[in-house]
Design a protein that fits this description.
23% strand; seven-stranded antiparallel β-sheet; alpha+beta; Extracellular Endonuclease, Chain A; two-stranded antiparallel ribbon
């Protein structure tokens, strides 16, 4: 009888361990990740607005390792509010005042960007937008009504070299309404895969963006998010979320090192909560993303190299 009880206890313990591992999650390489906690924006008042403090650990403004080395995907400038260039030091973006979210965000990732500062959760509206442009607030996504995460473009875990670096990623100008399973599982797995590469001798130039209107969150499909406390708020819910990553062995002269054989990983996911957690199912081509999102990616490359890369399908390994 005692032996039978031990067998039952062992079986139950195994179930608990498996359940815990399932909740923790594994990315496609088998690396463990911890999914973000439930995003309950809108359950309390907004945090105070914030600007950006750029520390010595930010990427350089130009040249190797700079955030926009491979070009400006939409020709963003400070002259138009719907393609407004924001240099946040730790990443660069094109912000869309009408959609109240980024068109795209680009950044460089290497081992020096990953440290021990941890996740600050310092969500805040950005105080540096042009006059008259509504600044999305930390509670604007009203999670209890719409069920979309405040989804980072430049991930928190890509900027843990300092608290200053991590805080920059929590500005609401770096967020999109993202279906929780897309954000925490599919996108979380892809982000972990790329961070895993930079700890094994690689550096990565990343561009992330979104397009379209209409996604499905925890509480069903929505086109926009509004919140009665903010009369100017009308946040677009994108239909698709995409990412392009140029993967290079760590080195110098990065633009010149890119050739037709360079790895360019392109992923385009639907912004839905029923999404598969395996990001490899959504691998596509650079060309397909350029056409869908109306952007010109990797424009700093020679045209012949760009043309050779745009139709390649990276295997994701």
């Amino acid at each position: 009888m005692k032996f039978k009880h031990l067998l039952i206890y062992s079986f139950l313990l195994t179930l608990v361990i498996v359940s815990c591992k399932k909740n923790q999650g594994l990315d496609i390489t088998g690396q463990a990740y911890t999914a973000p906690v439930a995003d309950t924006s809108g359950s309390s008042g907004a945090a105070a607005g914030s600007g950006v403090v750029v520390g010595a650990d930010a990427p350089p403004a130009s040249g190797d390792n700079s955030n926009m080395l491979f070009g400006n995907p939409s020709g963003a400038t400070s002259l138009t509010n719907d393609n407004y260039l924001l240099d946040q030091g730790y990443y660069i973006e094109s912000y869309n005042a009408t959609k109240q979210e980024p068109n795209w965000v680009c950044w460089h990732l290497d081992a020096s960007n990953i440290g021990s500062s941890g996740r600050s959760n310092a969500f805040a509206g950005f105080t540096g937008l042009p006059s008259g442009v509504f600044a999305v607030q930390s509670d604007s996504y009203n999670y209890s009504t719409y069920g979309f995460d405040r989804g980072h473009n430049c991930p928190s875990a890509d900027r843990t070299s300092s608290t200053t670096a991590n805080n920059a990623t929590f500005l609401m100008t770096n967020m999109i309404p993202q279906a929780p399973n897309n954000n925490q599982q599919t996108w979380g797995n892809l982000e972990n895969y790329l961070r895993g590469l930079v700890t094994t001798g690689y550096e990565v130039y990343i561009i992330m963006g979104s397009y379209g209107t209409g996604g499905t969150g925890l509480y069903g499909p929505f086109n926009t998010i509004t919140y009665s406390k903010y009369t100017a708020e009308k946040i677009n819910v994108p239909s698709n979320v995409w990412k392009v990553a140029v993967i290079l062995p760590t080195g110098n002269g990065d633009l010149a090192r890119v050739s037709a054989s360079t790895r360019v990983l392109s992923v385009n996911t639907p912004n839905i909560n029923s999404i598969n957690s395996n990001w490899k199912l959504y691998i596509t081509t650079l060309d397909a993303i350029e056409k869908a999102a109306n952007v010109n990616l990797l424009s700093a490359l020679p045209q012949s190299v760009h043309d050779a890369l745009k139709l390649k399908v990276d295997p994701g390994q």
